């Protein structure tokens, strides 16, 4: 069975927790373990934080989360229409940050990759970024 959802919210840091809860509630239909929920929530948090901090640089715009389940596979997309990433490969290097003055550690993509099975980043300067993350939930096939 396939299921989808889409949620939009303002790019303010208070909505990071909201995004985590929305995705956790959506994935509940797959009967995930607590560890799987924690992994996905961490990855979502990192992606949403990137959209807020880097994509919109403190301005309030819209962040969109799209989720899909098909079988036991969860796919989550975090989209912004912010400044975009000029060099995605460079941005995904551990410890690289475009905002060192803001105290950013450059570990966001590393965490997303560690907690999800797949992470893809599409971005165009001036048009925004879409982070797509996938995770197989459970192994028992029910």
From TrEMBL:
It catalyses: L-seryl-[protein] + ATP = O-phospho-L-seryl-[protein] + ADP + H(+); L-threonyl-[protein] + ATP = O-phospho-L-threonyl-[protein] + ADP + H(+). Keywords: ATP-binding, Kinase, Nucleotide-binding, Serine/threonine-protein kinase, Sporulation, Transferase. Its EC number is 2.7.11.1. Residues 35-139 form the Histidine kinase/HSP90-like ATPase domain. InterPro entries: Anti-sigma-factor_SerPK, Anti-sigma_F, HATPase_C_sf, HATPase_dom. It is an enzyme of class 2 (transferase). GO terms for molecular function: ATP binding; protein serine/threonine kinase activity; sigma factor antagonist activity. The keyword Cell membrane does not apply. The keyword Nucleotide-binding applies. GO terms for biological process: asexual sporulation; negative regulation of sporulation resulting in formation of a cellular spore; sporulation resulting in formation of a cellular spore. Belongs to the anti-sigma-factor family. Binds to sigma F and blocks its ability to form an RNA polymerase holoenzyme (E-sigma F). Phosphorylates SpoIIAA on a serine residue. This phosphorylation may enable SpoIIAA to act as an anti-anti-sigma factor that counteracts SpoIIAB and thus releases sigma F from inhibition. This is Anti-sigma F factor. It comes from Anaerosacchariphilus hominis.
């Amino acid at each position: 069975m396939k299921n989808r959802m889409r949620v939009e919210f303002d790019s303010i840091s208070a909505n990071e927790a909201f995004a985590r809860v929305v995705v956790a509630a959506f994935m509940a239909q797959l009967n995930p373990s607590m560890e799987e929920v924690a992994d996905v929530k961490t990855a979502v948090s990192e992606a949403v934080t990137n959209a807020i901090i880097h994509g919109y640089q403190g301005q309030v715009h819209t962040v969109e989360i799209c989720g899909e389940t098909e079988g036991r596979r969860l796919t989550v997309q975090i989209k912004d229409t912010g400044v975009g990433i000029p060099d995605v490969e460079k941005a995904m290097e551990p410890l690289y940050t475009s905002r060192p003055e803001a105290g950013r550690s450059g570990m966001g993509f590393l965490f997303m990759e560690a907690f999800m099975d797949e992470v893809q980043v599409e971005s165009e300067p001036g048009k925004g970024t879409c982070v797509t993350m996938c995770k197989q939930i459970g192994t028992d096939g029910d």
